[in-house]
Amino acid sequence: MSSENTNSENSGRGAASRAAARAAASQKSASRGVGTGTPEKYQSRIGIDYSIEYPESFAQAAADAGAVPLLSIRELGVAYTTRSGEPSAAIRDVDLDVHAGSMTAVVGESGSGKSTTAGAVIGLLAANAQVTSGEIRLSAHGDAPQLDLRALSPREWQKVRGARIGYIPQDPGTSLNPLKTVGANVAESLRLHTGLGSAQRRARVLELLDRVGIDRPQMRLEQYPHELSGGMRQRALIAAAISLDPQLLIADEPTSALDVTVQKRILDLLDELRREAGTGILFITHDLAVAAERADELVVVRDGVVEEQGPARRLLGRPESAYTRRLLADAPSMQTLVGAVGPVRAAEASPAPASPNEHDPGRSEADRTDALSLAQESSPSPGPSGSAPPLVEVRGLTQVFARVPREEDTADAADAATTGALAGTAVHNTAVHDTAVHDAAVHDAADPRTATAPSSPDATAIIGIEDVDFTVPEGTTLGLVGESGSGKSTIGRALAGFSTPQSGSIRVGHYEAESLSKRELRDFRRTVQLVHQNPASALDPAHSVGASIAEPLRNFRMGSKADRADRVAQVMERVALDPGLASRRPRELSGGQLQRIAIARALVIEPRLVVFDEAVSALDVTVQSQILDLIQRLQEELGLTYVFISHDLAVVRQVAHTVTVLSRGRQVETGPVEQVFAHPEDPYTQRLLAAIPRPLDTQVLDLQALSI
Amino acid sequence: MSTVEFAGADSRSTAQPPARGRKGSRRSATRTFFTPGTIIASVLLGVTIIWALFPGLFTGHDPVDGGDTAALLAPSAEHWFGTDQIGRDVYSRVVHGASRSLLAALIAVGVGLIVGSAIGLIAGSRGGWVGEVLMRIVDVLLSIPALLLSLTIVIVLGFGIVNVAIAVGITAIAQFARLSRSQAVTIMQADYVQAAYGSGGTYWSVLLRHVVPNAVSAVLALAVLQVGSAILQISTLGFLGYGAPAPTPEWGLIIAEGRNFVATAWWLTVLPGLIVMAVVVSTHRLGTALRKAAE
């Protein structure tokens, strides 16, 4: 290699290094034709024939023939040097292999060293981190030699990153340069690594965008990242990652920021890529369900040490480590599994298998059926004799921020996808508002099972909510489910008195929440409390957590100063926190503790209704499970009524009695939770349920047998 | 019983890593704060403050009455900065002038800080037409050149060091208002403000309990930064003759008086000028470091 041409060792993205790399690339192209890969491979992979199904055994055969893993990590240790001097180990003795065409998933909670592992593989660790021991080897590929990734110089790294190892970052929202078009973003590594002219690059980017399933690539190429939905952006990032035909892809939580149906499509795409091209994937995730569903090999890490690893099938069937068992038990998706695999059985047989959750001791069956019967009354007619009127009654709630023409429905999506470029400019201006619709539409069309009627017959899509009705009987939980942008939080805000709806009525107890005077609103707040998604931002960093909990008491002038301290201590014990933590600042506590504090603050003035707005979405799975248990226990002890807003169906299934499903601002289905989940009537609900990761479809996971 | 164990497990498993990180970041923050530049700046500013408090410790000469000392002496061991046209020790005048200049700077910054942050915080947290009107008033203040504005105000209020300080303070209002407004706007969008309203808070209780404490560090950092430019502006006004009347030792005035002898006795302007410059640069350096630490 003519490495003396590469006159910059800077691995950053400065203009200087880019120019240098371009110079180097053009030098290379003079001697080798095209870039670092072989032109034939591009043709076969991304050319016109990519839609041909490769035989199932293809990837397997390639892996067997090679026998040498594509990526092999042995006893890897990474340490962060701290200011105090001695380095602290972030990961220790990590062994893992990625084979061609297979996926190895590294699973762990935040701070477990997952991302550090990925960073070590691609040579992009933080400045104060160092690989202290072990080896990382990338196998030979075509005419590219085997590499010891630890020994590479920055200049050598430039030829490996992008070209041989592709990287798919976590957050599609911030990983594309907002000042460049999608086309320019995707073309970046082509520009750096190959000598292709701009017309050739454009053609290649078109192929790539088409390859990753972006509809109308001609048009998308010219758009800016903000005009694309999250799923589309992630597709564009995948297109960029595979642009140079890497042998290994590193996917760092590629779907964590996405809705569940979008997540499914992205995971399907990754599956397709590795099946067709034999690309190995190192998949980093905190979501055991996702990993279990897709990966061939699982590596469970905790505190930088591998807890357990092995084939996904074995590891899920017979987990050996206690930690893996706990993760399995805590993952709400896993608990859904029993019901989801056998919905008929769950509905017909005794209800025991329908609620396999052993963490849920207090919720008796009678309780549940009682709730169901109450919920079935949720028609406008008043409740039956003997039962009190529901605590919350919402009628025709409407708050439309904008109406946008729905330019196409699922029916003509296939059309749009095939005509592609023709549609180009015609829909350009409307597409800005509704790219999510495209994304959904195209892939629904691709999936025959879900390509059924659209969820709403109306001609316009709305931003906001329209005509939402539901009731919540006292002492029960209503789950509000929907993808991002479905209007869940708008309902939550209206319920908690933070916004006044345009029309419709909200009755909570004896308050009409839509027409409160300023003084009534303050009283109303003693009845309804809202718990936010992110406890770290919902607590004032300048106050001690005790002061935060006491704030409602102070605002409502309840009790003397000493009384307040007592009540704060009581409520902290109630949420299972040591009252001694009251003097701490929010930044000194963990996410789970902060959410307990936020719940304590909501409970201290003894409200009747608590609205949880994605209250567990930002938490690790084990902490999430603890908080859900707490929420359920408090409901039993205090007879609270909950409205639980979440995008996570599994979580809602666990805590809710009745569930309302929202799609793009409209209510598509309401009913008792078991009924909706076992026999979804609306196609949207069906699609939502189908998208939940379901590890090992054929195998029913018997949680009781795990003895947890 | 079980609940306590529960919480214990929770804190053990999850609280430690952030705690460790925090300690590290605090240590690194102090380390980045104490660079050689900030240490020198603190020493210089410290000396000036001691001058202002105890001028008698640093000089034995009378700042106002030169007695029978020869005029326009060059700097020497006896008279560090030389003597002026009527034989007064210039170093002594600078030392005695420190208190007046620093006090005036503090008054100026205080006026700007209090009035400016009040305007900015209310504009940022109230929004609507109240915010619009307040910020347009601030825009008017910004549109007039600071020196021109302060000269006008001094003429209206009358000469004198305190009036000069107030005038300089008024010119600083706009900057404080803009900064505190942007802080308030950000803070008002935070979840904890919504949560405070949700727990029954009124506008004023939210403003005082949540917005002010969270905005204060950035605003105070700007205040330190402003001390330097206030000293400069006050000296400028003193130099132009709008400040303290003639015999008073005041930095601007000292330089102004020396101006007539620049060709023959350069030290009369250059040495006090260097002192003013050193103090201004020091406060600027500290203010910048504080602002970075606050972020």
TrEMBL record, chain A:
Protein name: Peptide/nickel transport system ATP-binding protein
Region (Disordered): 1-40, 346-391
One BP annotation, GO: transmembrane transport
Coiled coil: none
GO terms, molecular function: ATP binding; ATP hydrolysis activity
Compositional bias per record (Low complexity), positions renumbered to this chain: 11-33, 346-356, 378-390
Biased composition (Polar residues): 1-10
InterPro entries assigned to the protein according to its UniProt record, in alphabetical order: AAA+_ATPase (IPR003593), ABC_transp_ATP-bind (IPR050319), ABC_transporter-like_ATP-bd (IPR003439), ABC_transporter-like_CS (IPR017871), Oligopep_ABC_C (IPR013563), P-loop_NTPase (IPR027417)
Compositionally biased intervals (Basic and acidic residues): 357-370
Keywords for this protein: ATP-binding, Nucleotide-binding, Transport
Annotated ranges, domain ABC transporter: 73-328, 437-689
Family recorded in the similarity comment: Belongs to the ABC transporter superfamily.
CDD domains on file: ABC_NikE_OppD_transporters
TrEMBL record, chain B:
Gene Ontology cellular-component annotations: plasma membrane
Residue ranges, annotated region (Disordered): 1-28
Mode of membrane association: Multi-pass membrane protein
Record-level GO BP terms: transmembrane transport
Residue spans crossing the bilayer: 33-54, 102-124, 144-173, 218-244, 264-282
One Pfam family here: BPD_transp_1
Domain ABC transmembrane type-1: start-end pairs: 98-287
Predominant localisation class: membrane
Keywords for this protein: Cell membrane, Membrane, Transmembrane, Transmembrane helix, Transport
Subcellular location: Cell membrane
Family to which this protein belongs: Belongs to the binding-protein-dependent transport system permease family.
Protein name, per record: Peptide/nickel transport system permease protein
